[in-house]
Here is the input.
Amino acid sequence: MYVSCIPLPFPEGAIFYPIFAGMYTHKKSLGQHFLKDESVIKKIIDVLKEETFTNLLEVGPGAGALTKHLIQLPGIDFKAVELDEEKVDYLFQKYPALKDKVIHKSFLDIEKPFDQPFTVIGNFPYNISTQILFKMLEWKEDVPCMIGMFQKEVAERAASKEGSKVYGVLSVLVQAYYEVEYLFDVGNECFDPPPKVQSGVIRLKRKANALNYKSERAFWVLVKTAFNQRRKTMRNAVKSLFPAEVLQQEIFTKRAERLSIDDFAALTHLMQ
Here is the structure.
C-alpha cells in the first residue's frame, strides 16, 4: 500500500497517522486520546452486554475502537455522536453501516437522540467529562444505564461516598439518581497518544426509587450551596437557606462531605 508523504496542513500540535487510504489526526483541542488496548475494549463491551437495551448511543467514537463492536450487536438501534468532521468522514469510509447513524455535533449540543429509553456508552472526551455527566442528568428519565471511560479523577468523584475527600457536588447529584459502580482502572499506555492522566471506567444504573426531597430545585440548591464552602460547617455554609431554629440541629455541625445523599434530601423539607 502506498501512502503519500506530501506535507499536509494539519492543525498545530496534531499527530497524524496513515490509515487505509487516508489519515486521521489526534486533536488536542478536542481532548482526543483513542483507546487501542483490545483487552480493555473487550472488558467494556462485556460490561455493556450485561445490560438489556434496544437503543444505544455512543459518545465520541473517534477512530471506532468501540464502534466496530457496537455495530455488530444484534437487534440494536445504534447512533453515535461525533464533533470532529474528520473522524466522521473516517468512520463512514471504514464502517459503511454507520451511514445515517452519526450525529455530527458536540454531545453537549444535541437533542435527545431517541424517542424511547436508551443506553449511553463512550470513551468520553476528558475536557468536557463533567459537563457530559450533568447533561446525562437532564436525560435521566430516558437513560437507565451509562457505561463510560473518564479521567480517573472524575470517575472517582462520581463514585465516591460521604467522608471521602473527593466527595462533592458531582458525587451527590449523580448518585441521587444513579447507582455508580467504579469498574476498573485504565493505564495511559492503553491510549494513542497516551494521556498524562490515568483513566477509569464506571457504570451508572438508574435507581428504582426516587429520593424523598422537597423538590429537585431545592435539593440542587442545597447541595451546591453546601459544597461551595465545604471547609465550613453546614451551619455556616447554608445558613441563608434555613430558619435560625432549624440550624441548631446537630447535623448542621458537620461539614457537607460528611452528609449522605439521604441526609441532603431530608434537609430540603426543612428549608425556608
In short: The chain has nine helices and eleven strands. The first helix runs from residue 38 to 49.
